[in-house]
DNA sequence: TTAATTTATGCAACCGATTGCAAAAAAAAA
DNA sequence: TTTTTTTTTGCAATCGGTTGCATAAATTAA
């Protein structure tokens, strides 16, 4: 095993012995317990410092059965949005004395299940989850419910009596965006969605469809494309559109990655945006301002979502907010209009 | 405190009692110890399942003084590169029975120091670090050296006798890229670098400078711009270039974000890439293939770097590789030539 | 059938902080 | 000075696996 030239670890017993007091006093002193005289505390801290003491989290966890740790499971870390979300969570958590354990499901239910087990074994006090693409149910979180470990979904959520949800109003955002496209003169509007089992995509689809409906446009089956919203899917979508005899005059894609890829492939095939077709995305990724023309999209602030999720969880953990734990918290979004949907007159 | 309607936790003692055997046997059985008869193991596992037993990590950690946890500190999570790195680390770690604790320094030394303390208190068995932008020294890792906790730097590294480094050959990559620009006919080549205290930027600068030198081009002080390589810095850089009386005919920027922003701002000011000026970046971010023209850059595979870093660390932890722990491991990179540097004839 | 091996299991002392309760010390009241 | 009250501090059991060493059980050899 490991090179074991580490010297013996210093414990509160060592400090107690050196100071001729009891370990109990040291334990209390170190955590600033009011029953300990200031003078004693000072001596304890000084001695701890002098001996190079480090607190043993495990001994405490073993005893208290709490870890002051929050588990986070997200599909992927590599988006500005997720990074922002996590930064927000970290801020709130650290201020409240909690640590974060982060893991990514890489969009598969299988990995998500493994992550859940790991989190469970690491005895996180609570869990913040945004569901993977392929997740079909949430039985893998049952153990958390059984043990009364609070679980909060954010962004990609699941309706469950035990779980508050933190989301944006995907329905409304899609409705607004679609209405805007109609207002720009579009009549044949396609929608590229992700897995409709995920709330974010089903809600966006519904918002889109209802906007059509409310504007007297009959939704046609062929206008809906469901795929994984990857860049490759964007290219496929463009090819599909290109091959249509009756082409759409606008496409609303449920994320920016796919929208951008689609737009570029359309352009390569001589279909220009926004001249020939309007394109809009969702998320406001950095690429949206790089692609030409710049992409119209929906922005929602990640830090806010992360903060809200962490705050809600910590309130639950501290026993506050039991009286009024909201089932769903909706954060605000904003439509960002750029050149990709500005029909030239 | 928390709603405490959780039932009593099941322990190996409960399993032992139910099966009329000793806790020691249960403990060994659960971890598949060869000294336990298969039949006994089967009974143990079945009983554990039946009683809803969950392993207590803390009791083990307390006893073994190992956590099977690896700490990871990175500047930011929100890049494809970092996400890839972490995916690679996770793969190798999980296969070897280790968990990852990930935190981001958000490019500041202050946060990095805090993260280091957290990791230390969480008793990670080892640490994988890529340094923040503003980090000026590594005293905050001294406690790890003192306790003989292995620390490996990757990408943004620091030379230290105790720490293996996992990097790419930034010098060579920059040298090759610059040579290529010269070959394309460029003679007045600017370089936009990040903080020169970070190896990645100083090495890229040196590679650039030596390539000039070796091609008989005299490096001029004004050709070097040092900034934070953000998008805003890219715009500033473009404005700076625009204002020059004697403009460069090529710019080599040390990352893609900044390169792209710079390119776009140049374009807005009527300076066209690659007609008027060649632009190259570094990293091969997704935006490099979205911007027009597509950006020439240097690719290096994150997963490989993550895997290598984790492997090296785990070898150290397991006591292998002590005889030949390399001080520096260099991974391969590749020059990716795209339109932004193709001078039209 | 008995002795020599091999295999399987148990004993019990750890790891280090926590905390209810009791007792000692110090301060205030009588 | 004695008694009462308030502060401080200590005792000791507890959390739940782990593991060296000893012993019992099962197998094999004699």
Automatic annotation (TrEMBL), chains A, B:
Gene3D superfamilies referenced in this protein's UniProt entry, alphabetically: 3.40.50.2300, lambda repressor-like DNA-binding domains
GO molecular function annotation: DNA-binding transcription factor activity; transcription cis-regulatory region binding
InterPro entries: HTH_LacI (IPR000843), LacI/GalR-like_sensor (IPR046335), Lambda_DNA-bd_dom_sf (IPR010982), Peripla_BP_I (IPR028082)
Record-linked Pfam families: LacI, Peripla_BP_3
Keyword annotations: DNA-binding, Transcription, Transcription regulation
Span of domain HTH lacI-type: 10-64
The organism's place on the tree of life at top rank: Bacteria
Protein name: Transcriptional regulator, LacI family
Annotated organism of origin: Parapedobacter koreensis
Source taxonomy: Bacteria, Pseudomonadati, Bacteroidota, Sphingobacteriia, Sphingobacteriales
């Amino acid at each position: 095993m490991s090179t074991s030239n580490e010297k013996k670890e210093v414990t509160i017993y060592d400090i107690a012995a050196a100071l001729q007091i009891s370990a109990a006093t040291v334990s209390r002193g170190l955590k600033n317990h009011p029953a300990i005289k200031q003078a004693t505390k000072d001596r304890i801290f000084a001695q701890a410092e002098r001996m190079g003491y480090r607190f043993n989290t495990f001994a405490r966890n073993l005893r208290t059965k709490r870890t002051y740790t929050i588990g986070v499971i997200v599909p992927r870390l590599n988006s500005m949005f997720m990074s922002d979300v996590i930064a927000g969570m970290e801020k709130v958590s650290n201020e409240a004395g909690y640590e974060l354990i982060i893991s990514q499901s890489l969009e598969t239910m299988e990995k998500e299940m493994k992550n859940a087990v790991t989190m469970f074994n690491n005895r996180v006090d609570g869990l913040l989850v945004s569901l993977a693409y392929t997740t079909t149910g949430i039985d893998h979180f049952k153990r958390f419910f059984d043990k009364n470990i609070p679980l909060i979904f954010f962004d990609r959520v699941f309706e469950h009596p035990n779980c508050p949800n933190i989301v944006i109003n995907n329905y409304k955002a899609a409705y607004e965006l679609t209405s805007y496209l109609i207002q720009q003169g579009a009549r044949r509007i396609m929608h590229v969605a992700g897995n409709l089992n995920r709330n974010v995509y089903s809600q966006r689809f519904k918002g889109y469809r209802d906007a059509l409906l409310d504007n007297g446009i009959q939704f046609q089956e062929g206008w809906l494309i469901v795929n994984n919203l990857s860049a490759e899917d964007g290219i496929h979508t463009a090819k599909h559109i290109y091959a249509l005899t009756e082409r759409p005059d606008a496409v609303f894609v449920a994320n920016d990655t796919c929208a951008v890829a689609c737009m570029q492939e359309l352009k390569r095939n001589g279909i220009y945006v926004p001249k020939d077709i309007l394109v809009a995305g969702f998320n406001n990724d950095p690429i949206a301002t790089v692609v030409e023309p710049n992409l119209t999209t929906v922005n929602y602030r990640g830090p806010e979502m992360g903060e809200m999720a962490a705050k809600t969880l910590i309130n639950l953990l501290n026993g506050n907010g039991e009286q009024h734990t909201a089932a769903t918290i909706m954060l605000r979004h904003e439509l960002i209009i750029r050149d990709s949907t500005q029909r030239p007159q």
